[in-house]
Design a protein that fits this description.
Blueprint (H helix, E strand, L loop, with lengths): L5 H22 L3 H4 L3 E5 L5 E4 L8 E5 L4 E8 L2 E5 L5 E5 L3 E2 L21
Antiparallel strand pairs: 1-4, 1-7, 2-3, 4-5, 5-6
Length: 119
């Protein structure tokens, strides 16, 4: 095993510690940007107000029912800009969106009886 001077070893090690996190950071997008786009749905039990801008100071222009599919275009803080099926760009509070598609509503099973039907 060869002896490496401390100053050379320390310089090499510090170079690794400094460059590795920076290189990794450049490749990773912030979490908000990674999840910013795609198909989302209005959460169950929520009627979601849509606004003309990202905040409650902007007027309500529409409302979406639970399970409505929306395409998220971008996010700004807690707000998401969404595109409707009609192509309108509106803003909604992102906490009321989910990436889970709504469950198909179960219909009640048909009642069946072996007894003859009486009017």
């Amino acid at each position: 095993m060869k002896f490496i001077p401390k100053s050379l070893f320390a310089a090499a090690l510090s170079g690794l510690l400094v460059s590795a996190p920076v290189a990794g950071f450049a490749q990773n997008k912030p979490a908000a940007q990674q999840q910013a786009q795609g198909a989302f749905y209005v959460k169950p039990g929520v009627t979601l107000n849509a606004r003309s801008g990202p905040g409650t100071k902007f007027g309500k222009v529409a409302a979406f029912q639970p399970g409505t599919k929306l395409s998220v275009v971008k996010r700004q803080g807690d707000w998401a800009q969404v595109k409707t099926d009609a192509g309108k760009l509106l803003w909604v509070f992102a906490n009321y969106l989910t990436d889970s598609a709504p469950q198909a509503q179960k219909s009640a099973p048909a009642q069946h009886s072996d007894k003859p039907h009486r009017p």
